[in-house]
Amino acid sequence: MINKNIIIENIKTLFYALIIAIILRSLLIQPFYIPSSSMEPNLLVGDRLFVTKYSYGYSRHSFPFSPPVFNGRIAFNEPQRGDVVVFKTPADNRTDYIKRLIGLPGDQIRFLDSNLYINNSEVLKARIAKNDKIYCGNRIIDVFTFEELLSNGKKHITVYLKNNSFANSDIFQVPKDHYFFLGDNRDCSKDSRFLTSVGYVHKDNLIGKARFIFFSSDKSIGSFFAFWKWNKSIRFDRFFKKIN
C-alpha cells in the first residue's frame, strides 16, 4: 500500500519545482523557438534560443499568460538600437515575435530606393555576397547579402531580394515609449512596417533580449526522434552561437 505521506511529499516537490520554474522563466531566462524565416540568415527556422527577461525590466508580459499583476514597466532599462528582441505583438498582446530593434522613440524611419534611413541619415551597408539563396517560408529566394552599420556602431547581416525589393516607403514616426522593429530578411518579414498587424511596439510589450542559440535542428530533414538522421538534421555548428 502506498504511504499517503509519500504522495503528499511528492505533490509538494512538484509544486515547488513548478514555482521555481515559473520564477526563473519570468524573471531570468526563457527559451524560445524560431518558427519563421523572417530573421534569416542570422536566425533559422528550428533554432532554439535563450532570452534574458531582466534586460529591459519587467511588465505583465514577462509572466506566463500576461496576468494584469501591475501596470507599466518596472526596473526599465532602455533597449539599444540593433538589439534582437522578443516582444508581444500590439495586435493581440499575445503572439511572440522576434525582430531587430531599428527605431527608438522619436525616430523617423523610411526606405528610399531600397536603402534604410534613420532620421534622414542612410544606414551604411556593404554588400558581402550577391548570389545567396535563403528561405522565405517554403520558398527559396535569391538575395543580396549586406553588412549594415548602425549609428551606435552595431553591425549585423541583412538580406534584400535581388528584384522587387522593398524600395520606398512613407515616413514612420516612432511615437513616445514605442519602438520600430525590422526583420533581417527584409523582404520576407511582417514587422513594424505593417502598421495594422505589428506597427510600433510599446515598451510594455518587450519580453527580453535574445542572447544565444542553445540548439538547432532542420525539421525538413527529419524529426528529433529520427536519430539516424542527426548528422544531417541537427545543426551542431549553431550550438551556443551568440546572437548579434
Task: Sum up the structure in keywords.
Umud Fragment, subunit A; 36% strand; 11% helix; 15 strands; mainly beta; 244 residues
Overview of the molecule:
- This protein has 244 residues and is mainly beta.
- The protein has one domain (4-242): Umud Fragment, subunit A.
- Helix content is 11%, strand content 36%.
- It contains two helices and 15 strands.
- Strands 1, 2, 3, 4, 12, 13, 14 and 15 form an eight-stranded antiparallel sheet that branches.
- The longest helix is centred in the N-terminal third of the chain and has 24 residues, at 4-27.
- The model has no long low-confidence stretch (mean pLDDT 91).
* Rg over C-alpha atoms, rounded to the nearest angstrom: 20 Å
Count of structural domains: 1
Mean pLDDT score:
91
- Helix-strand topology string: HEEEEEEEEEEEEEEHE
Note the overall shape. Answer: globular
DSSP E strands, number? 15
CATH topology: Umud Fragment, subunit A
Assembly state: single chain
Point out poorly predicted stretches: none
Q: For this structure, what is the CATH homologous superfamily?
A: Umud Fragment, subunit A
What structural class do helix, strand and pairing data support? mainly beta
Number of helices: 2
Helix content: 10-25%
Instruction: Characterize the biggest β-sheet.
Output: 8 strands, antiparallel
End-to-end CA span: 57 Å
